[in-house]
Amino acid sequence: MSKVNKEMTIMDVLKMDPGMAPIFMKHGLACLGCPGATMESIADAGQVHGIDVSKLVDDLNEYLEKADVQ
User: Is 28 left (phi over 0), alpha (psi -120 to 50) or beta?
Assistant: First the structure.
């Protein structure tokens, strides 16, 4: 199973599983289709938007773990 890390872009993560889009939105990253989503790392986006990147990555990986079990 792949894991999400803060160096990945938002688009990399959404390609793994588009179902993770609501998690980004819950954390305040709603601009999933903007050019930054394909170029900026999650860490960079988090810094710009003042988001707790560790919590976001944890939530994304928790989603993947649950999806992998089902």
Answer: left
